[in-house]
Fold Thioesterase/thiol ester dehydrase-isomerase.
Amino acid sequence: MTLESVTSNPTPAEPHHCVTIYSLTVEPFMCNQSGNLHGGAAATIFDTCTSISVTAISRDGFWDSGHVSRTLNCTYLRPVPGGEKIFVECEIVHAGKRLGLLKGVIKTKDGKVCVTCEHNKAAVGGSNL
């Protein structure tokens, strides 16, 4: 997996807004019997990419002590063939003191949306959050 870009656009309304983009190639071990990206592999990719993206907004005392998933909902729109290079776009929609919401989209190199996710997270650690 390669980190392609990180864009942080904080505003008063969205002080933690951040978008990260990763790329990777769908390997055979990630595929189902039809030769397409397996749903569980897509969920794992989202879990990893969205979770890593939180580091872009963490600071001392804020989302710096780890976090766990509350929910991870995936919607599968079209198959992703094995061998395909994909891009995973992750957006931090909201990050409060304890709870956060992230959005993820898997796209093909020509921009077709294949899988989306909504990932709710909870910050763990010290009470100074």
In short: Residues 8 and 18 are 4 Å apart (CA to CA). The two ends are 31 Å apart (CA to CA). Strands lie at 2-8, 18-25, 67-76, 85-95, 99-108, 113-123.
